[in-house]
Amino acid sequence: MTPAEMEKRIVRYGDLMPCKTAFIDAHTPGSDQKENFTIIGGGVSESPDQHVHIGIPHGFNIGAAGQPPKCRNSLHSHRTAEVFFVLKGRWRFFWGRWGDAGEVILEEGDIINIPTGIFRGFENIGTDYGMIMAILGGDDAGGGVLWAPQVIEDAKDHGLILGQNGKLYDSKKGATLPEGVQPMPVLSDAELQNYPELSPMDVVGFGVRRYNDMVAMAQKTPCCVIGETGIIQDKPGFEVGFLTRASSSKEMHQHDRPSVLMPMKGHWKLIWEGGQATLNPGDTASVPAGLMHTAVPSMTGEASLFHILATDDPAGPTWSGT
């Protein structure tokens, strides 16, 4: 693979193209300043304006959310895994029918694997623009987003209607539901009984790992963060690995499916048969299946990197909170 061919599979942080109308809460005060990014895969955006950087199927989706201080993402749920790591800023993650069942604060480098089947949201509580990177299970990311009823009701007051076809219509721009398309129904009281109110111990104990702890565990060999044998033991249809300068290796290797490299700290040199490229924090690199490659820090100083690889496990509910 030539350097020019590989560069097409690298999404640079500075080249990310945001969508400000990706979801139903795009006009709702408190959520109207957020930016959503679809980096790899189709994503779960409800807007035709969402730009997809790399459409090649990987068995999972990679996205990101960028928000100014005090901006939040409204309560929603997914049918497959949703994993975040904090690239920039300080973030509060909260969950439950009304968002008050529990919360946790994450700092840069921390990671959270949110259980499927619960309503969750997140808010930038830092003092500057923040960015969180997301991994969603499955090529179709579970078929979209399930919103808490109050989110859909609030959106109507600000001109956005979600159709049952999964698409958004902005009445402020004169859009109406097409003939034959009904509004997305809100979840009934009976359906809401299937969404548990998990305790902080359930969510934090199960799915949160701190950056410094991962660094300590990746001093000799790369650490499996999420996976069947990971420090978060789950099978969401993908594995998340973590390596540092101390656990990086110049030895070339390959995978039988595409893999993704996402630097967290420092600058990394991606080396493959045919060339090399430098990856910076916030960049996302998709390495083709069967390509011999490795990644090593290219400068002195702290260096860490997340590695994502699909598994043969189905991308679906993996933990019910029981």
TrEMBL record:
Q: Per its UniProt record, what Gene3D superfamilies does this chain match?
A: Jelly Rolls
Which PANTHER family does this chain map to?
Answer: OXALATE-BINDING PROTEIN
Asked if the Swiss-Prot or TrEMBL record annotates the protein with the keyword Transferase, the reply is no
Q: What is this protein called?
A: Cupin type-2 domain-containing protein
Tell me the superkingdom of the source: Bacteria
The entry's keywords: Metal-binding
Q: Which organism is it from?
A: Roseobacter fucihabitans
Show where the Cupin type-2 domain sits: 69-132
The answer, when asked if Secreted is one of the entry's keywords, is no
